[in-house]
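dumping this here so i dont lose it
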């Protein structure tokens, strides 16, 4: 820079123009050096680093490149050059140094933030990330680093020690607690969720209070992101999973079976004792032949042993169409390919209500996939609705508009016939 001054003096220019012209030339030279250094670092050094990382067998190298970690760090080179040339301008040396240091701190913060994001991406390539997510913890680290960086920037600009600013933060602790309330609650909730293994990425959770019913796709410091089955996204506060109840279907998904728990409502007026004709017809049913033979033998032995008069159907033991139908459903499910035979399977009667007698099926499918589960369940009930009349069973259903119209039509026909006869 002294060379520039001497060169301008030797050119015998107006002394009043030498100083401002020298400053302009110095600024241009520093700018050219910064541009050249930036070009060298981005176009040459970065390409060499990218080639080394690409050719290496390190699987997370591409993640660092995608996050542009080194490229963001390269922005620090011009700031270092400007800081080094600050003494060239004695009048503005202090201001230039402060601004250069501020820029260096900001670039450093951007670099650290990018590095933290890259670490999270690298961690997510491992299976343990679904069980123990660390995104919330990294966000806490990021907040702490950004806070420290902000303090360093302010202390550098005002020319005071960072400790002075830190001592003043104690007085603002109440305000900070209010500002970072959600972050603090989210941090505590994240620790509890992870420590107790309450929820993982990929879990199907259901939280009706917030309208969430789908798969967890992200767990962060403040929120848990759930993609519902209609492809909408629900954002849940992390602490809501601690303070409120929710359903996690992970146990069902890992068990290998999904529960079917539905009832057929039987019209009680269709329940009767089995006649001999009905028994002869039932014994030809594939899933009932062994059951009918065994039960008939037991009932006959019991009635003969106790000398029961079967002329009255109320006396002794006898088969009922609802009992035979229940046995048929049980045997049908035991031979169904879509039902998990190693899990609970039963057909039971529930308490009678105004809708009839509930005959509940309690079983588990072989698959936990939603589409397969619904297909198996639908196939089973399609068959049962179709086969119920073969047992003399009527499934209960409230009268529809068509039923009422038919009843009214029959009533009108009866009245017309009576009038004609009259």
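and the seq i came up w/
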């Amino acid at each position: 820079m002294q060379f520039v001054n001497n060169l301008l003096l030797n050119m015998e220019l107006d002394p009043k123009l030498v100083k401002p012209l020298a400053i302009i030339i110095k600024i241009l030279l520093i700018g050219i050096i910064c541009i050249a250094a930036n070009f060298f670092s981005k176009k040459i050094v970065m390409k060499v680093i990218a080639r080394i990382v690409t050719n290496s067998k390190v699987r997370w190298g591409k993640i660092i490149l995608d996050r542009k970690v080194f490229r963001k760090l390269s922005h620090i080179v011009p700031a270092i050059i400007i800081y080094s040339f600050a003494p060239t301008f004695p009048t503005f040396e202090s201001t230039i140094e402060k601004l250069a240091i501020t820029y260096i701190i900001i670039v450093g913060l951007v670099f650290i933030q990018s590095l933290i994001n890259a670490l999270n991406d690298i961690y997510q390539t491992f299976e343990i990330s679904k069980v123990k997510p660390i995104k919330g913890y990294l966000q806490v680290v990021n907040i702490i680093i950004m806070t420290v960086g902000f303090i360093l920037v302010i202390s550098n600009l005002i020319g005071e020690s960072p400790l002075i600013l830190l001592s003043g933060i104690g007085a603002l602790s109440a305000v900070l607690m209010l500002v970072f309330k959600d972050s603090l609650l989210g941090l505590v909730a994240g620790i509890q969720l992870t420590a107790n293994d309450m929820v993982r990425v990929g879990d199907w959770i259901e939280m009706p209070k917030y309208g969430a019913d789908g798969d967890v796709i992200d767990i962060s410091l403040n929120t848990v992101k759930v993609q519902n089955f209609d492809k909408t996204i629900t954002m849940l506060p992390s602490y809501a999973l601690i303070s409120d109840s929710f359903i996690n279907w992970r146990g069902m998904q890992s068990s290998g079976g999904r529960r079917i728990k539905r009832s057929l409502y039987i019209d009680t007026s269709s329940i009767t004792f089995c006649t001999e004709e009905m028994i002869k017809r039932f014994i030809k049913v594939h899933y009932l032949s062994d059951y009918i033979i065994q039960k008939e033998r037991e009932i006959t032995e019991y009635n003969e042993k106790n000398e029961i008069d079967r002329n009255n159907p109320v006396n002794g033991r006898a088969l009922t169409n609802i009992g035979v139908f229940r046995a048929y459903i049980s045997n049908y499910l035991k031979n169904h390919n879509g039902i998990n035979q190693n899990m609970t399977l039963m057909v039971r009667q529930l308490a009678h209500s105004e809708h009839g007698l509930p005959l509940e099926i309690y079983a588990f499918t072989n698959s936990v996939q939603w589409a397969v589960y619904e297909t198996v369940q639908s196939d089973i009930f399609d068959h049962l609705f179709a086969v119920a009349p073969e047992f003399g069973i009527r499934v209960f259903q409230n009268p529809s508009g068509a039923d009422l119209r038919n009843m009214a039509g029959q009533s009108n026909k009866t009245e017309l016939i009576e009038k004609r006869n009259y």
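Strands lie at 204-207, 212-219, 223-228, 233-237, 247-248, 259-266, 346-349, 357-364.
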